[in-house]
Amino acid sequence: MTSTISPTGGTETKAAPPSVPSRIRGALGASGSQFIILVVFLVAIWLVFASLDGRFGTGNNMLTIISVSSVIGLVSLGQALTVISGGFDLSVSGVVPLGGILYAILTNDGWPLLPALLAVIVVGSVAGLVNGIIITRFRINPMIATLGMLSITSGLALTLSNGLQIPFDDIDAGVLAARTFLNVNNHVWLLLVLSVVLFVVLRYTSYGRRIYAVGGNREAARLAGVRVNAITASVYVLCSAFAALAGVVLASQLLTGSGTAGIDSNLQSITAVILGGAALTGGVGGVPGTLIGVLILGVLSNGMAILHVPSFYQTIATGVVLLLAVGLSQLRVLRRRKK
Amino acid sequence: MAAPALSVAAIGKSYGRNRVLDEVSFEVMPGETAALLGENGAGKSTLAKIIAGSIGQDEGELTVAGERVRFANPREALDHGVAFIPQELVYVPRLTVAENICLGRARSRLGFTSPGGILRQARADADALGFDLPLRETMDSIPLVQQQLVEILKAFARQSRVVLLDEPTAALESEDSDHLLGLTAQLAARGVAVVYISHRIDEVFRSCDTVHVLRGGSLVQSQAIAETTPREVISSMLGRPADEVVVPKRQTGPTPNALVVNGWNRAEAPVLDDVSFTVEKGEIVGLYGVRGAGPETIAETLGGLHPGTTGGTEVLGSPIGDLGSPIQAQRAGIAYVPADRKSQGLVLLNSITHALSLPTLSRLTRFGWIRAALERRTASDLAQRTRVRSQSLAQPVGELSGGNQQKVLVGSRLAADAGVLVLHEPTRGVDVGARLEIHRLLRELADQGAAELLVTSDIEEAVILSDRLLIMRQGRIVHEISKPGLGSQSEALQHAGGTQ
């Protein structure tokens, strides 16, 4: 950067409002070009699958992909919050099945649907609150704290169900998944609405701004008067609430509560969030990127299923995609540093 | 008269159409310590690289000890007795200090080196210069200042005739800098020509014989240190008239106290022992002491970082209960500018706007919503007041120069309009131009009625900026200098007990 100091002692300050391109880039998240790369990548694998098999590109299949992805989508929205704040949450893999089991038990017990749903979310939030307190008050690494909570919640889910599947007595309990509005499943609407809400919260509220600040530099945020412990604890509460809700959606899709449904959601959601441009060091990431990350994972698994690729290979492919995406973004960081 | 150890004659260098060095000429005699000064981008590192052989010049000649040279690479420069010690030191971290000193020149027998032999050789080298180094420790376990001494020792042991030091004290505290400079003098005393690249004017005046100032690639001043003044040097570095590089002192008379600290104590380390002082509205009070003597503890306590401190505190006439957290400090009306902008001060990923608004976000928020227009206006106002230079206010703070980052940090603490500003190392690692701008800004704010407590390890900053300077030693205030000036440095250092 060059600057001139005039002999009269006056200094020029360029404080013009952000130019239009940078504003557009800003609207897409921390790094606009990375977001575009992601979209291009999504479209590319989409085209590859569509050219390999005619069944892939149909409108019905698109809806299937979105519908199937929405469970992991809900988990990933919550996970994005923890990652942006500089942590992550492994316990979602326990909270998702626990949520499904609880919902099945409560509705089979005769609870009305809405109170049952709320009760499940409250239980999820409590698990998140415990995570948050352990991480902030006792300064235990999120890895250890949420690993412990993962064990507790998944153990609880299996205990409550005696290790068995719990089918819904009343098919209506599956209202979130089975019913549609404008030909789109209710749970897809749920994902869309919550995505918009979270997007707005992250971009336009002081709460969202503070989550980024805590993740970007915890100590600087604290010295700037941000209640870093409260913010950190709150994202774990929200993350677990989202996971519990995802558990209800998953059970509604299966019309069954199962202690093992959704146990891969922690790695899946962290993968989606990182694919979407977040960094485990915190401070970056966002809703649009996360959703694209979720869709990339969804398209990959759906496309390979249609091509009859064994599921083991799908797992390998997910890993390769994650490493590729992270490697690319790291390359960009390194190049920028060199400059 | 002996031949100069180093002679630079009409050196020029361009990158494309960008002329970075133009007809630069000076000489350094054996045993002379020459300072090479200039703002960032003035061309001093390019010149150093040419002398050290890592890049070639377009025009001009280099002469080392009477021999005309043109180095193809740093190796050739070393062979001619020219050693360059960069800011980022290069050493083998897991080897011992002795092994690093003897690296590449240890005598071997049948391919084996003997640890005892290496230790003896390293000790002989260290004793020759009077350096006291922990020869058996590994290189990565000793402090930075000693690592630098190892580099200097290596250059000496190689029998270098010219040693270039690139901002060796930039990352050091005052005491360590003094230690390093004192030992560098040992090199000169043995006939080595030392070229000292720096931006710390006070050090240059304490330790160099001559000064060469670069501005925009040209040599604008070249003089014996005894014939010039710090003010003259700063003015030629910045290209501004000398009367504009001084920060005026307070003009107004006594005013009511804005900050009263009464009988502060801390039993556990860092200790404070019955500390009491006041800062008036419009006054800048400096606190100076060697590391651990107390000033930084006071700054951090006022910032809410040391809950264990006891005693009374008043801000703008009303007593405040507790300074247990940064939030409580802010509520009490104290704005704290932390010492380390990278780890404590700024979220480097933030845009300038977001960084400026973070501490006062709740004022810019209605029902949880950030009022974007108000935020932009506030930020652009603060950026203008602090003279932040950037492409746009959407630029990430991490991309700015150190000086501009520091201005953003100071600016972010101004939004609260707090009555008391606590400035902890407000210009650390900032170039001379930005330092001057920050100093003028701080004076301006004081003139507008702010009470400022300045805690700095930069003694020159302490004396030129403070209206009153309090000296601390072992947790106590031991001395007060009522109207400090450039001449008060030795008085301050004496009472602080750092240097006699």
Automatic annotation (TrEMBL), chain A:
Keywords: Cell membrane, Membrane, Transmembrane, Transmembrane helix. This is ABC transporter permease. CDD domains: TM_PBP1_transp_AraH_like. It comes from Herbiconiux daphne. The lineage of its organism: Bacteria, Bacillati, Actinomycetota, Actinomycetes, Micrococcales. The keyword Cell membrane applies. InterPro entries: ABC_transp_permease. Pfam families: BPD_transp_2 (PF02653). It is a multi-pass membrane protein. It is found in: Cell membrane.
From TrEMBL, chain B:
Keywords: ATP-binding, Nucleotide-binding, Repeat, Transport. InterPro entries: AAA+_ATPase, ABC_carbohydrate_import_ATPase, ABC_transporter-like_ATP-bd, P-loop_NTPase. The keyword Repeat applies. This is Sugar ABC transporter ATP-binding protein. The keyword Phosphoprotein does not apply. GO terms for molecular function: ATP binding. Residues 6-241, 253-499 form the ABC transporter domain.
